Amino acid sequence: MSSPVIVWLRRDLRLSDQPAIAEAARKGPVIPVYILDDETPRHRAMGGASRWWLHHSLESLGAALQEKGSRLILRRGRSDEVLAKLAEETGAQEVHALHHYEPWWRNAEKAVGKVLTLCLHHGNYLAPPGSVTTGSGGLYKIYTPFWRALRERMPPHDPQRRPQTIAVPSKWPESDTLPDWKLLPTTPDWAGGMRAMWEPGEKGARKRLHAFVEEASAYEGQRNLPGVEGTSMLSPHLHFGEISPAQVWHAVADAGGSVATFLGEIGWRDYAQNVILQYPDYGGRYARDPFGAFPWRTSTRDLEAWQQGRTGYPIVDAGMRQLWHTGWMHNRVRMIAASFLVKHLLIDWRAGEQWFWDTLVDADYGSNAVNWQWTAGSGVDANMFVRIMAPLTQSEKFDAAGYIREWVPELADLSDADIHDPPSGKRPKGYPDRLIEHRDARERALSAWQQAKGS
Ligand code: FAD
Fold it and tell me: Which of this chain's residues are annotated to bind FAD (predicted)?
């Protein structure tokens, strides 16, 4: 019997269109392993909502492997050390994995490559990050030309089916048990809203995709309306690699209709990886001046009011409460809430990036950093700082009354005319006053910008 092959799983927790598993299955008995690596230095430990998702996703993958007569081995520690030990125990000669672009995963890949034969495959992006180049061979910094060039190379590959059979080793190595990792919250158990909304795992991802495909042609018209389920809600499934972007692309494109805008959004996901490949510390450092000299405020009171959805701006509060309960927030509201933190409260975007990192089920190093830097105006491709979103206008424009009623129930009895901006006489007891008036916030932000530019 040929020696076993290790498949090192990370954010690629699926069996179909998974080239590392497919290639290993062609070579010999397969040992699929997930390593809980809290030791390779990273920008920040995995957040609470992501840990919740990971638990369920691993459970689902373990069950899918069992249906094929295989198993998922769980180990904890530094990836290179764990893999070296596993190879020694099992006689495995090769490790197969998908490329990942977070700086800590690239470091871990280098470390593994020093001690073992590591075969890396592409499969988590529409095109391998780093492969979409300008005429002079450089990498794109701006989304629009990046997308134009990526679009030229589409469609992506045809998705591969899951392997028919996965050969097993003559003896399985030992595995941790999932509950021992304590990824789920206990006291308090804050995950009720997440359980109600999500089904982590490959099966749940496929269900979401099928449901979305039915409605995909309405995406263009509905995607900015937070009160309508008009987007795919595939982001955590894509983040954890329970479905590949090629699978999403083909399913949506085959459905027909006007889906170009949706496909361009999937392109943003590729773009974000293209950015962190060029700027590995993008999650912690402003990409442009004069943000290093920006007079940020430090106000624990304001930061906590934002986190808890108690800013006195209904659209912002609705978004922040949706995030806390479900681990997800509508994209339009993410933009409004993020802009509010940075421009109305003048709090450094990195405090917001950190909160999102901990509370989003789709928390993704590249996408989170790129979108925060875009909103703040500090990114390589960014909205100008001086363009300040007016939350009340946004709330009316995108028809958020129903959304606010759902997430800020104390305002539910207000009329459509009042709910976006409850007049002081009609603010229910217990709902806070605005932390700052929009006009004052705007003036303060513009003067802070002038100060930063002048320093
Ligand atoms: P759809 O509209 O159905 O889009 C399909 C897919 O395209 C998404 O699942 C996602 O993978 C990708 N996508 C869409 N918009 C973007 C975008 N702007 N940037 C990158 N990818 C995109 N998205 C994350 O996946 N992880 C994050 O940590 C994250 N942080 C964000 C922080 C801020 C401040 C903002 C403004 C946006 C952030 N986004 C992030 C992008 C976007 O809000 C979510 O991807 C989207 O809301 C997910 O919902 P959906 O799956 O229904 O999206």
Answer: 219, 231-235, 262, 362-364
